[in-house]
Amino acid sequence: MTAAPDLGTQPDFQPGTHPDTHPGIRHRLASPDLLRSVFRRHAAGVAVITARGERPVGFTATSLNSVAAEPPLVSFGVGVTSSSWPVIAEARYVGVHILGEHQAELAATFARSGADRFAPPTAWRPGPEGVPLLDGVLAWLVCRVVARVPAADHRLVVAQAVAGDPSGAGRPLLYHQGRFNALRD
Hints:
This protein is mainly β. It is 12% helix and 40% strand. It has helices at residues 32-39, 85-90, 104-111, and strands spanning 2-4, 8-10, 44-45, 47-51, 57-61, 65-68, 73-79, 93-98, 124-126, 132-134, 139-151, 154-165, 173-176, 179-182.
């Protein structure tokens, strides 16, 4: 055992060694199923990303992150096989919508393949830069796309906020264990 400052004792584990040589460490080899299983245990906020194209496009995202405050940058991932990708790939601006716990059905609509996501009952309007803005969300941003970084069969999109509104009422919608959930008190 090796003593680590302020961490107590840790088992000796050298990078490149196989975990089977360390009793008590259970593991599975990395795979898409392992990654999905691990991230089902990670509660994430739910957002919808939109963009203006010939027709508006949008998709549900749980990969939204705040990247920096100065300048104000966000990031999200999008699959290149997504029906929204061709528009997102060319869009100068995107909308980022933080959903409330009352919007699980809206999240499901924007996650559903082949759905007409902007048809009623979805309420929306054109916002700054013509970006589709969803009504009733907790908060929204319109962001200028500054980078699209290849990441396997996805792209990591980095965008700078140019306008927004954080004044929606309610509590956030979460995604956990493969389902949309509300916070518990």
